[in-house]
Amino acid sequence: MGEFTMPSLGADMDEGTLVEWLTTVGAEVARGEVVAVVETAKSTIEVECFESGTVTELLVEPGTTVPVGTPLAIISPTAPVRPPTARGPVPAGDATATPLVRHQAAEEGVDLTALHGSGRGGRITRSDVSRAARPAPSRIQASPLARRLAESLGVDLATVRGSGRHGAVKADDVRAAAGSRTGEDHAPVVEEAFVAAGARRAPRTSPSDTRTVASTSDRAAIARLMSRAKREIPHYYLSTTIDLAAALEWMLRQNSTRSVGERLVPAALLLKAVALAAREVPELNGHWTDGRFVAAAGVRLGTAVSVRGGGLVAPALADADRMPLTDVMATLKDLVSRARHGRLRASETADPTITVTNLGDQGVESVFGVIYPPQVAMVGLGRMTDRPVAVDGMIALHPTVTATLSADHRASDGATGARFLTTLDRLLQHPEDL
Predict the structure, then answer these.
(1) 313: domain range?
(2) For residue 158, is pLDDT > 90?
């Protein structure tokens, strides 16, 4: 029997809110399958289970905030477990019944002392309570979050087509119904958190009001982590200007033979070059753990993404140094889209080994980022700017970008950082090798 626990989804995460269950008691789940949606102070994440089996208990109700490591569900081996023969199922007066099960029984009017548990050791499960509950044939199947969200948004659940197990209505179904009815975007993540927690939503006065609330919460989380990073990490900073003429000319030739959907953009070349440079200079690719630097086995390239309502998340491109450029493009597009809609998976946010922040599209020429612990480096990229460069004794205007490096002086020094930026420059002068 295994416990599915509240995961740690970042160095600054001490607790999380269970927003929605995407599985039910009795369902068989496979390793890597998404089973829950969890909200952190910065974003909403889809969480996968780490073992295969049958969900025998859901221990935490949606809307509950619990510390990292708290058991959320029990997943038992798929093979049936024979109950003890020496003693039959234990009555509720003596058997284990979790607070969640007792709460459910009280809500549904079930006398626990009259039940015999079907769980291991006679434990009473939620499904035992559900079977004994008074029949409610007219009750619409919907997750608790979906019900609260429907009430908040004024959506009649009877009119919503459910996409969940056995037609159950999920929160996304309610959001879609609300969006199609009003023509507005779905409720922001911060509003869903209040609904999930059972709070009444205040009347919405304007989109800017909601964004302000979201930004305040996110900024507080970011401020805590960045304060810790600046306090604990001795940063050093380097920058260089990289000529992108060769890279962009090669990209244009490649795009002339590609379909519109597969055409490359400069960001893909820059990210792939950063990933390759991290592989060549492993002293900057890893984590500072227990007072020492631990180099990572591969490159998980974090990419800073601004999310709706304020705040930042940094989903990771796993093995970005080994991805073909076309895959880098496709993966980046998918991650950014889902990050901005709060649908990232836990495995996509866990343990980036080096992070890139690109503010070129915001008009910034250079950015010196704050390292995200326990990482030891962050790369900043600015906007492309035409600058005069010397080419074969002549002055010409070439597209250039300012690349910066923020690094942890405990793990490396300026010579190592300079080697990284020099490697990044060299790679971009030979884009055919990316």
Answers:
(1) 218-433
(2) no
How confident is the model over 365-378, as pLDDT tens digits?
A: 999 999 999 999 99
Cα–Cα distance for residue pair 178/187, rounded to 1 Å: 9
Do 320 and 300 touch, CB atoms closer than 8 A?
yes
Q: Return the amino acid letter for 408.
A: D
Note whether residue 41 is domain-resident: no
* Cβ neighbours around 85 below 10 Å, total: 6
Decide which of 176, 204, 232 is a domain's last residue.
Answer: 204
What is the DSSP-derived secondary structure letter of residue 42? S
Residue with tokens 């600046």: 230
Q: What pLDDT is attached to residue 179? A: 64
Q: Do the Cβ atoms of 174 and 146 come closer than 8 Å?
A: yes
Within a 10 A sphere around the Cβ of 250, how many other Cβ atoms? 17
Residue in 20, 425, 16 with CA at minimum distance from that of residue 244:
425
- Return the amino acid letter for 114: A
**Of 80 and 118, the one with more pLDDT:** 118
Q: Three-class SS of residue 386?
A: strand
| Same domain? 235 vs 378 | yes
Nearest to 286 by CA among 299, 276, 275, 274: 299
Angstrom distance (rounded) from CA 362 to CA 63: 36
Pairing of strands 377-381, 65-67: unpaired
Report the distance separating Cα 68 and Cα 73, nearest Å.
Answer: 14
Same domain, 317 and 233: yes
Q: What are the tens digits of pLDDT across the range 389-398?
A: 888 889 999 9
